[in-house]
Specification:
This protein has 270 residues and is of the alpha/beta class. It contains 8 helices and 12 strands. Strands 7, 8, 9, 10, 11 and 12 form a 6-stranded mixed sheet that branches. It has a two-stranded antiparallel sheet with strand order 1-2. Strands 3-4 form a two-stranded antiparallel ribbon.
Length: 270
């Protein structure tokens, strides 16, 4: 009942029935690899080839077409080639499901940004001796149409290493500057601190883009903006972070290390 067929070029498909996924897989794949690598005599020349095999199984938790199964096996075969060829690799359905969910979440955040579903909440900073409000910290919230109010830890980790985090970070700075302009017009002079993620801080054109945001909000003085960066982000790119701090000070922007001392940093870094 097994079937082997040539799809085209040097690609073949074997459909194997009644296979115990774990117990028989290794033996079967070894037999296929050995058969493919058997020497071939062409007149006086002996030719040796090798094979890379990708495996997938059916049925799976979700319903799949034949084309989808072929694509899964093809992806696994590509991984086998990257690992050195002449071997087999099984398609990881759990990892594939995780990646698909991750892509979907990133796309939802992208759409949320375009639909203006994000808001900034302003947490007051209080002088504990005098009770005076000395500034605010901008905290992002996602007003999700189905899930309601979402806190940063519920969506920011998804885009931590994605370019979208830079786009969202610039939206936060722009929104904070807009709020500062509104307060300035009402005679309220205060400061707002904004958290900067690692990817945003490490952009080569970070200062240029920051200058551009300030130019678009001329009523918000640079001294009213403070940038907070995580200790770990600053130390990963210490030289670049130090340059950013120096240039921010020249512009008039304040700078702070967030959660300093919760990692492994010594006072030398500070």
């Amino acid at each position: 009942g097994d079937t082997i067929a040539r799809l085209g070029g040097d690609e073949f498909v074997a459909i194997l029935v009644d296979v115990d996924a774990l117990d028989s897989e290794s033996e079967l794949m070894s037999r296929l690899l050995n058969a493919a690598s058997a020497p071939v005599a062409l007149e006086a020349t002996q030719v040796n080839v090798s094979a890379s095999i990708g495996i997938t199984y059916y049925p799976q938790p979700c319903d799949l077409s034949g084309d989808q199964l072929l694509r899964q096996a093809d992806q696994a075969m590509y991984v086998a080639k990257l690992q050195g060829k002449n071997r087999y690799c099984r398609f990881d359905t759990d990892e594939d499901h995780y990646i698909r969910e991750l892509h979907e979440e990133i796309e939802q955040i992208r759409q949320a940004l375009s639909r203006e579903e994000f808001q900034l909440y302003y947490q007051p900073k209080i002088n504990m001796r005098s009770g005076e409000v000395i500034g605010f910290e901008a905290l992002i919230r996602w007003i999700h149409p189905q899930r309601g109010l979402l806190l940063p830890h519920q969506f920011l980790p998804v885009i931590e290493n994605h370019p979208l985090s830079v786009q969202l970070g610039e939206w936060v700075i722009a929104s904070a500057l807009t709020q500062l302009e509104l307060w300035q017009r009402r005679g309220v002079k205060t400061t707002v601190s904004v958290n900067i993620n690692a990817r945003q801080l490490q952009q080569e054109d970070f200062i240029e883009r920051l200058r551009g945001l300030l130019e678009r909000h001329p009523e918000a003085p640079p001294s009213s903006l403070e940038l907070e960066v995580l200790e770990t982000s600053a130390i990963e790119e210490l030289h670049h972070a130090s340059n950013v701090v120096q240039q921010c000070r020249q512009i008039g922007i304040g700078f702070a290390l967030h959660d300093f001392g919760t990692g492994y940093s010594s006072l030398t870094y500070l």
